[in-house]
Amino acid sequence: MPSSLEFENQVLIIEKKIADLREASSIGDINVASEISRMQMKVDKLLKDIYKKLTPWQKVQVARHPDRPKFLDYIGGMFTDFIELSGDRQFADDRAIIGGFAKLDDIRCVVIGEEKGRDTESRLEHNFGMPKPEGYRKAYRLLNLADRFGLPIISFVDTSGAFPGIESEERGQAEAIAKCMEKSFQINVPFISIIIGEGGSGGAIAIATSDYVLMLEHSVYSVISPEGCASILWKDESKVDLVAEFQKLTAADLLSLGIIDGIIKEPIGGAHRNKTETISNVKTDSVSFLKKSIELPEDVRKDLRRRKFVNMGDGLRNEQR
């Protein structure tokens, strides 16, 4: 049973009863199948109703859910023949960004992603998914290799933002992010990105300056976190609900503004409730959009990629008129 979010309390109560009934039936000759089925139908209906009306701030909470599939889950569930490449050839190997060569069905590709970790040990290993400059320089190296060998690129974004520590600034964090974006515009190969959880600030766009940007249904993508924005504008983090609404950080908002190119459906109750279905959905849409990019002539693809980002904001300007 996944960790419950505050707005799922009713669901948690019923799921606890289902778990108790299953335990009782396993230690005694009690047939509770029909009651469990009835209660499960109630859970599914509740989840449908709740997730139809999620506020932007609630979507942020879903995007941060600890049980949500992480990048390494997608590596294991979508790709074969993964060969990891480590290090930036300048300073160190940043474990917040992982990448290498892989196969997606019959498509040989380069895959890059931000990994948050799942427990305390792995979160510390991966720095909670917040890359340092060497992480972005590793990504730059992978982008360069993909272009050199003519391999399409798939990136997975899941970060609250680039690591903000002093050591990152000393080693050129902004320059490393800018170089990744610059290289993304220069490469000739197809390139798609998927926001699988949080897409935070430059930490996200550094590896998402691509032909097509997709988002999972309950993921978020923004220039700053709602907490950070509320703290700056109002000096009051309690206004996160209001800020999240103004930020237009949900997949539906961003699709309507032309910031992203597609929304990937999540299972009822969010990706954390059915990782297998989520990964399958991401794979199906990734293959579809990657093939779409592969079919474009090289010069057209590069021009469309550049225009996509140059024209960003037109949707918002049109909405305001």
Walkthrough of the structure:
The chain is an alpha/beta fold and 321 residues long. It folds into two domains: 6-53; 60-320, 2-enoyl-CoA Hydratase, Chain A, domain 1, CATH 3.90.226. 51% of the residues lie in helices and 15% in strands. The protein contains 15 helices and eight strands. The protein has helices spanning 9-27, 33-52, 56-63, 71-78, 120-125, 133-149, 166-170, 173-186, 201-205, 226-234, 240-247, 251-256, 275-294, 298-310, 314-320; strands at residues 80-84, 97-104, 107-114, 153-159, 191-200, 212-216, 220-222, 262-264. Strands 1, 2, 3, 4, 5, 6, 7 and 8 form an eight-stranded mixed sheet that branches. A hairpin with a 2-residue loop joins strand 2 and strand 3. The longest helix is centred in the first third of the chain and has 20 residues, at 33-52. It is globular, with a radius of gyration of 21 Å. It starts with 8 loop residues before the first helix and ends with a helix.
Question: What attributes characterize this protein structure?
Answer:
about 325 residues, alpha/beta, 2-enoyl-CoA Hydratase, Chain A, domain 1, 2 domains, about 50% helix
The radius of gyration computed from the alpha-carbon positions, rounded to a whole number of angstroms, is: 21 Å
Q: How far is the first residue's CA from the last residue's CA? A: 47 Å
- What's the story with the biggest beta sheet? 8 strands, mixed
In the CATH classification, which architecture of the largest domain applies? Alpha-Beta Complex
Domain tally: 2
The assigned structural class equals alpha/beta
How is the quaternary structure best described? Answer: single chain
CATH classification, class level of the largest domain = Alpha Beta
